[in-house]
Automatic annotation (TrEMBL):
This is NADH dehydrogenase [ubiquinone] 1 beta subcomplex subunit 11, mitochondrial. It comes from Brachionus calyciflorus. PANTHER family: NADH DEHYDROGENASE [UBIQUINONE] 1 BETA SUBCOMPLEX SUBUNIT 11, MITOCHONDRIAL, NADH-UBIQUINONE OXIDOREDUCTASE ESSS SUBUNIT, MITOCHONDRIAL PRECURSOR. One of its GO terms (cellular component) is mitochondrial inner membrane. The lineage of its organism: Eukaryota, Metazoa, Spiralia, Gnathifera, Rotifera. Complex I is composed of 45 different subunits. Interacts with BCAP31. It is a single-pass membrane protein. It comes from the Eukaryota. Keywords: Electron transport, Membrane, Mitochondrion, Mitochondrion inner membrane, Respiratory chain, Transit peptide, Transmembrane, Transmembrane helix, Transport. Belongs to the complex I NDUFB11 subunit family. It is found in: Mitochondrion inner membrane.
Amino acid sequence: MNKLFSIGNFSRNLSALAKISKQKNLIFNGTNQLRLASTQTSTSSAAPSLNEADKPQWERSDRYKIYYGFDANDEAKDKASAHFYTFICFFGFFFVPGVLLYYYPDYKTNDWCYREAHLELARREKAGLPLVDSDYVPSDKIKLPSEEEIGDMKIIL
């Protein structure tokens, strides 16, 4: 019960601080930090600071700058580095493997029969032979069974 009472006091204090901060130009960020926000302009004779970090965000020259994470001080070098590494990554991960796969030798010998057929056709043309011979195997080398050996066996062609 005591804890609930202290939580209630804390929430009442927070709401009271929120009301005061609206009335007296106080900034309260909710983590026990309270500071006075000045609404008056400074009339000091000191030279104005030229540091970009000291200016409000809407007056900074880098308001719309996109940092790519390569060089925080030089915008041109940062952008050039980002574009260079992006190009290298796309080129290295997509284009180079594609070219290597395209020009890789025929390791499964899929195209061997086509190459061999072209070589055989070129050899036959040089020798003056017909491109396709009807007598591929000479008939004297073929040994067929006689009619007696075949008997009443059914022949399927």
